[in-house]
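Hey L., structure's done. Input below.
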Amino acid sequence: MTELLKISLPDGSVREMEPGSSPADVAAAIGPGLAKAALAARVNGEVRDLGRPFDGDSELALITSRDEEDALELARHDYAHILAEAVQALYPGTQITFGPATEDGFYYDVMAPANREPFSSEDLPAIEEKMREIIKADKPLRREAWTREQLIEKWESEGEAFKAEWAKELPENEELTVYWSGDDWLDMCRGPHLPSTGKLDPQAFKLMRVAGAYWRGDQKNAQLTRIYGTGWLNKKQLNAHLNRLEEAAKRDHRKLGREMDLFHLQEEAHGSVFWHPKGYRIWRELEAYMRRKMDGGGYREIKTPQLMDVRQWEQSGHWGKYAENMFAVPDMVPQVDEDGDGAAKPSVEDDANWMAIKPMNCPAHVIVFKQGITSYRDLPIRLGEMGCCHRNEPHGALHGLMRVRQFTQDDAHIFCTEDQVVEEVRKFCKLADEVYRDFGFTYHVKLATRPEKRFGSDADWDKAEQELRDAVAEAGMDNDDYGWEELPGEGAFYAPKLEWHLTDAIGRTWQVGTIQSDRVLPDRLDATFVGEDGGKHRPVMLHRAIFGSYERFIGILIEHYAGRLPVWLSPVQAVIAPIVSDINDYAGEVEAKLAAAGLRVKSDLRNEKINYKVREHSLAKVPHILVVGKREAEEGKVTMRTLGEKDQRVMSLEEAASFLSKAATPPDLAE
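Output:
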């Protein structure tokens, strides 16, 4: 008699099934409703196709649309395959490469057939319609194991050069799988997939755009077309996403930065920001705020060099791990042409020493810490720096203020004993909480643990990860209210880290603040302190930042507030707008009064209608417009219009000065 398989379910029950049975059979045995709702299965922790037979006794959890994270991943994977199938059905001769699921959708890289131009946005409606046909056909998605030779023969016979190249590099000793869509189209894929195309909602996806891409991401290789789409479980989710995109477009910091005259970027300095006076005012207010918080937290501010010898970066380990993202400079006087016009390219001597522009501040802070003899009584030492750094980001990855090459961090490093780590991290959790709440953000805290490739012993990693867990617990943040979770393998190569993920006004998340518990860098750079026993000991080095970088944080603030920054951050806090030119002298009095109260104000004395002035300054996101006419001048009053409010208020000049002064007070200085 054949021994039955024991399948353990999440409720603790056990089902006995015939050998060769699958999760789909278990779902059917439980009931027709579950059989219809099931999309895939988690078998012994691994997500698998619903129809894939069990390997033996197993733990089983069936995945339905209620398991949204898993269901979305599956759906987006299927949308990508259906996209490729649709393109090949419409345009025979198209070569396909790969198409993964993404954070909010999917894409597929393809090469158009030789008889037509590369695909463009004009092709997307036809491709969408073909995709809907494939979904409505409810084609079964079926998994098969193939040999590497079968794959190579298949792709070469059909002229799929990219797939053939990839297949030749696959290992012979691994199970290689393909997925059929019906009986007429297949792609090689590890899976898993939904049971059939009909499990997708044909109205829950949209193709968004096309872009250029290179085969295997190398610009030396053939150029492909990447077709992007967004995919969801139902039309309601799709519409909500499209609405978020529309709102995000309105809040785009690059667009608002132009409209508000805050900054610009241009080719002469790829990835570096040209700050205009209004934009730099925001920067200065943030910097002053952060300095007050750091002074109150016992940090001492320092300033360290931009250029350091490459040998320092080799010793720290950054050169070996990060050199491709660093700018290196030969330590020599460049040679130019004899005419002195600077047209000739300088040559680099073979024996030239090399300097590197710092991509982070950490090694320089260790150097400062090492000056003189430090006693355990001096610890903790908290060194902070508004440190300008450079990273060699690819041109295509640059994005406004969010991804730049030159940036300034609100950086600090805490050197402490092992016994002080938990308390120092707890204090930082409290400080970060104060800062983010001052800016109106909610957030989640996550622990990124050891990556596969790392420096340091497992014992040190065990200790560092547990210290961060303990600190979060003592701060009262290791719970669902703070979205506490662990991210396995996502730590830095030298240390685990806590991450703060902010949620903005339209529900997007931004990873901003971090604190890392590092025992590697102090060891590599020979940082020591004299312990109570008179011997030398290694400090623990806590790397921490709250804004992350000023550039990116300002970009986030602009989008979070849709340009309507809090009054204390606004470059211009109030504009005085006289209705007629006869009132210009009174407008000057109002401006002087408010400026004397410490407010950033200006008068708009242009010969324009008042409605035009109000509309223009509203678009510039000025928080308060003070309209003055003959009556206001006679009575010593102003009519205040506040951005975003329908009603206007008439008040005395003294009341206006008091009201605006209070509104313009930074949150850390408010009573």
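The mean pLDDT is 93. DSSP finds 20 helices and 32 strands in the chain.

-- N.
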